[in-house]
């Protein structure tokens, strides 16, 4: 199972009240140990949810983005073409990975770099491929699915982020990594998932690449989605994750970003970024308090009807606020 969900326990609500702030005045040390100075927040561009929705819809229009299909090549070309208009540098990794039953799968990872000279960097990533079959469907488990939420929504958000980064350059270095062949795996072998990320972690687009931390987006567009702090994310990247949740709540997105601790560990791309690339990375992924993923997960119901611009906005606007004002203050 691509995202193996393990429920350990349900704990009490740990959230405290979040205070509004328009100025950072903490003069202690930052995450690197360097002294901080007062920093007035800079204007943050408005995340255009309609634009992110359109980018999500466009990906779905190509059909299921499955390795070895025309949709894979067409969608990759469209994503790459857009990112080349916006980013300072775009890298395209083409390789072949070994899938289940030793299937040879073409893999296309796409990386867009902003402010490449900046030493302190943030990695944003999502997968853009589609699971080849709706194996969680109640009836026909061999049918294909659109993958509107599971894949396209995260890419749609990051493409709108990229468009904004082009117009309003932040001081931080930002890298957007869109990985392929994430969802081709089988439940019997968790490591058969996230193959594009595993390849990138061992073969980064820049030799010796490092980022202060990473943010993974997966299923970030569903109506009524809720995002909880996932177990592996807390283990490796609690500081930046907690900062992100705090910013989201301060911006008014407390219905989406929850502080309840349900003790869940999810096998997703961030696991390999953490363990193979050694970049602390947290996962923003929708799941329910009962431990299940949204009902449309890996079913034919994962189509544009489940996508809500409000959810895209909550995730995208928080990313922009963190990128422009508090990328390393955690």
UniProtKB/TrEMBL annotation:
Pfam families: Peptidase_M28. It comes from the Bacteria. Gene3D superfamilies: Zn peptidases (3.40.630.10). Keywords: Acyltransferase, Transferase. The keyword Protein biosynthesis does not apply. The keyword Acyltransferase applies. PROSITE patterns: PROKAR_LIPOPROTEIN. GO terms for molecular function: glutaminyl-peptide cyclotransferase activity; zinc ion binding. This is M28 family peptidase. It comes from Chitinophaga solisilvae.
């Amino acid at each position: 199972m691509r995202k193996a969900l393990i429920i350990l326990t349900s704990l009490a609500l740990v959230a405290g009240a979040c205070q509004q702030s328009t100025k950072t005045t903490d003069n202690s040390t930052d995450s690197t140990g360097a002294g901080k100075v007062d920093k007035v927040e800079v204007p943050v561009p408005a995340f255009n949810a309609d634009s992110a929705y359109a980018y999500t819809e466009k990906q779905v229009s190509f059909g299921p983005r499955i390795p070895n299909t025309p949709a894979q090549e067409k969608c990759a070309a469209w994503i790459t073409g857009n990112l080349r208009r916006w980013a300072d540098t775009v890298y395209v990794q083409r390789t072949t990975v070994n899938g289940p039953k030793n299937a040879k799968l073409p893999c296309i990872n796409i990386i867009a770099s902003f402010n490449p000279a900046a030493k302190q960097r943030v990695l944003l990533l999502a997968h853009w491929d589609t699971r080849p079959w709706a194996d969680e469907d109640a009836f026909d488990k061999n049918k294909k699915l659109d993958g509107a939420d599971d894949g396209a929504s995260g890419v749609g958000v990051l493409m709108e982020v990229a468009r904004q980064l082009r117009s309003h350059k932040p001081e931080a270095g930002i890298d957007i990594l869109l990985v392929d062949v994430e969802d081709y795996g089988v439940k019997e072998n968790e490591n058969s998932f996230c193959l594009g990320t595993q390849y990138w972690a061992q073969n980064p687009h820049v030799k010796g690449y490092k980022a202060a931390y990473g943010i993974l987006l997966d299923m970030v567009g569903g109506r009524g989605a809720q995002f909880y702090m996932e177990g592996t994310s807390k283990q490796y990247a609690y500081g930046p994750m907690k900062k992100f949740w705090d910013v989201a709540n301060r911006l008014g997105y407390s219905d989406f970003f929850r502080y309840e601790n349900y003790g869940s560990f999810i096998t997703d791309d961030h696991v390999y970024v953490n363990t193979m690339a050694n970049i602390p990375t947290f996962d923003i992924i929708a799941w329910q308090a009962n431990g299940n993923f949204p009902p449309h997960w890996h079913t034919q119901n994962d189509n544009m009807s489940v996508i809500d611009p409000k959810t895209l906005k909550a995730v995208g606007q928080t990313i922009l606020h963190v990128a422009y004002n508090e990328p390393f203050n955690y």
